[in-house]
Amino acid sequence: MEDCIFCKIIKGDIPCFKVYEDHRVLAFADVNPISDGHTLIIPKAHAENIWEISGEDLTAIHLASKKVADAINDVFNPAGVAVLQLNGRGVNQVVMHYHLHLIPRVSEGPELKMTAWELIPGDMDAIKLTGEKIAAAMAS
User: Fold this and answer.
1) Cys staple from 33: which of 38, 105, 117, 123, with CB 3.0 to 4.6 Å?
2) pLDDT along the chain (140 residues), means of 10
Protein backbone atom coordinates (compact mmCIF):
# COMPACT_ATOMS: atom_id res chain seq x y z
CA MET A 1 0.00 0.00 0.00
CA GLU A 2 1.40 3.32 -1.04
CA ASP A 3 0.46 5.41 2.00
CA CYS A 4 0.91 2.70 4.69
CA ILE A 5 3.68 3.70 7.11
CA PHE A 6 4.62 0.08 7.79
CA CYS A 7 4.86 -0.66 4.06
CA LYS A 8 7.18 2.35 3.76
CA ILE A 9 9.30 0.98 6.62
CA ILE A 10 9.49 -2.42 4.87
CA LYS A 11 10.60 -0.74 1.61
CA GLY A 12 13.25 1.27 3.50
CA ASP A 13 11.62 4.63 2.75
CA ILE A 14 11.27 5.28 6.49
CA PRO A 15 13.98 4.12 8.91
CA CYS A 16 13.34 1.79 11.82
CA PHE A 17 15.28 0.20 14.66
CA LYS A 18 15.25 -3.33 13.26
CA VAL A 19 15.58 -6.23 15.69
CA TYR A 20 14.69 -9.16 13.39
CA GLU A 21 13.90 -9.83 9.75
CA ASP A 22 13.26 -12.81 7.52
CA HIS A 23 11.60 -13.24 4.13
CA ARG A 24 8.06 -12.83 5.57
CA VAL A 25 8.33 -10.55 8.61
CA LEU A 26 10.06 -7.52 10.06
CA ALA A 27 10.38 -6.75 13.77
CA PHE A 28 11.41 -3.34 15.05
CA ALA A 29 11.35 -1.19 18.16
CA ASP A 30 8.10 0.74 18.66
CA VAL A 31 8.80 4.50 18.52
CA ASN A 32 5.91 5.07 20.95
CA PRO A 33 6.90 2.47 23.53
CA ILE A 34 4.70 1.52 26.44
CA SER A 35 7.80 0.08 28.12
CA ASP A 36 11.47 -0.48 27.35
CA GLY A 37 11.74 -3.26 24.79
CA HIS A 38 8.29 -2.70 23.22
CA THR A 39 8.66 -4.32 19.80
CA LEU A 40 6.37 -4.61 16.76
CA ILE A 41 6.31 -7.58 14.41
CA ILE A 42 4.70 -7.04 11.00
CA PRO A 43 4.19 -9.07 7.83
CA LYS A 44 6.04 -7.83 4.78
CA ALA A 45 2.94 -8.47 2.67
CA HIS A 46 0.34 -5.82 3.44
CA ALA A 47 -2.71 -7.11 5.29
CA GLU A 48 -4.89 -4.75 7.29
CA ASN A 49 -6.05 -7.13 10.01
CA ILE A 50 -6.63 -10.71 11.19
CA TRP A 51 -9.34 -11.18 8.55
CA GLU A 52 -6.97 -10.31 5.69
CA ILE A 53 -3.62 -11.81 6.71
CA SER A 54 -2.64 -15.11 5.11
CA GLY A 55 -2.22 -18.16 7.30
CA GLU A 56 1.41 -18.40 6.25
CA ASP A 57 2.15 -14.81 7.28
CA LEU A 58 0.26 -15.21 10.55
CA THR A 59 2.30 -18.32 11.32
CA ALA A 60 5.52 -16.48 10.45
CA ILE A 61 4.58 -13.59 12.74
CA HIS A 62 4.06 -15.91 15.69
CA LEU A 63 7.19 -17.95 15.06
CA ALA A 64 9.16 -14.69 14.91
CA SER A 65 7.44 -13.46 18.09
CA LYS A 66 8.92 -16.42 19.98
CA LYS A 67 12.43 -15.51 18.81
CA VAL A 68 11.96 -11.83 19.65
CA ALA A 69 10.36 -12.62 23.03
CA ASP A 70 13.32 -14.84 23.88
CA ALA A 71 15.68 -11.95 23.07
CA ILE A 72 13.56 -9.53 25.13
CA ASN A 73 13.75 -12.01 28.00
CA ASP A 74 17.56 -12.21 27.69
CA VAL A 75 17.98 -8.43 27.62
CA PHE A 76 15.38 -7.27 30.17
CA ASN A 77 14.56 -10.31 32.30
CA PRO A 78 10.98 -9.00 32.48
CA ALA A 79 8.32 -10.07 34.95
CA GLY A 80 6.23 -10.87 31.85
CA VAL A 81 5.53 -9.92 28.25
CA ALA A 82 2.13 -8.82 26.95
CA VAL A 83 1.37 -9.99 23.41
CA LEU A 84 -1.17 -7.57 21.97
CA GLN A 85 -2.80 -7.41 18.55
CA LEU A 86 -5.69 -5.09 17.65
CA ASN A 87 -8.07 -5.39 14.67
CA GLY A 88 -10.08 -2.38 13.56
CA ARG A 89 -10.48 1.21 14.58
CA GLY A 90 -13.16 0.19 17.10
CA VAL A 91 -10.41 -1.33 19.29
CA ASN A 92 -7.90 1.46 18.61
CA GLN A 93 -5.92 -0.06 15.74
CA VAL A 94 -4.13 3.06 14.49
CA VAL A 95 -1.89 1.72 11.72
CA MET A 96 -4.04 -0.32 9.37
CA HIS A 97 -1.36 -2.94 8.69
CA TYR A 98 -1.47 -6.11 10.79
CA HIS A 99 1.04 -5.89 13.63
CA LEU A 100 1.78 -7.73 16.83
CA HIS A 101 3.05 -5.89 19.92
CA LEU A 102 5.45 -7.51 22.36
CA ILE A 103 5.38 -5.35 25.48
CA PRO A 104 7.63 -6.39 28.37
CA ARG A 105 6.86 -5.49 31.94
CA VAL A 106 10.15 -4.94 33.67
CA SER A 107 10.32 -6.32 37.18
CA GLU A 108 9.26 -3.64 39.66
CA GLY A 109 8.04 -1.51 36.73
CA PRO A 110 4.56 -0.04 36.50
CA GLU A 111 1.65 -2.34 35.75
CA LEU A 112 0.71 -2.62 32.07
CA LYS A 113 -2.81 -1.21 31.89
CA MET A 114 -3.90 -3.54 29.10
CA THR A 115 -3.18 -6.53 31.35
CA ALA A 116 -5.03 -5.29 34.42
CA TRP A 117 -8.76 -5.86 34.28
CA GLU A 118 -11.14 -7.05 36.91
CA LEU A 119 -12.45 -10.59 36.49
CA ILE A 120 -16.24 -10.44 36.69
CA PRO A 121 -18.10 -13.71 36.18
CA GLY A 122 -20.43 -13.60 33.20
CA ASP A 123 -23.89 -15.03 32.57
CA MET A 124 -23.15 -18.72 31.92
CA ASP A 125 -26.26 -19.21 29.74
CA ALA A 126 -25.28 -16.25 27.55
CA ILE A 127 -21.68 -17.48 27.36
CA LYS A 128 -22.87 -20.96 26.37
CA LEU A 129 -25.11 -19.53 23.64
CA THR A 130 -22.29 -17.35 22.30
CA GLY A 131 -19.92 -20.32 22.26
CA GLU A 132 -22.49 -22.39 20.38
CA LYS A 133 -22.98 -19.65 17.78
CA ILE A 134 -19.23 -19.36 17.16
CA ALA A 135 -18.84 -23.16 16.99
CA ALA A 136 -21.71 -23.36 14.48
CA ALA A 137 -20.09 -20.67 12.33
CA MET A 138 -16.82 -22.65 12.44
CA ALA A 139 -18.61 -25.80 11.29
CA SER A 140 -20.25 -24.16 8.29
Assistant:
1) 38
2) 93 97 98 96 98 98 98 96 97 97 90 87 95 95
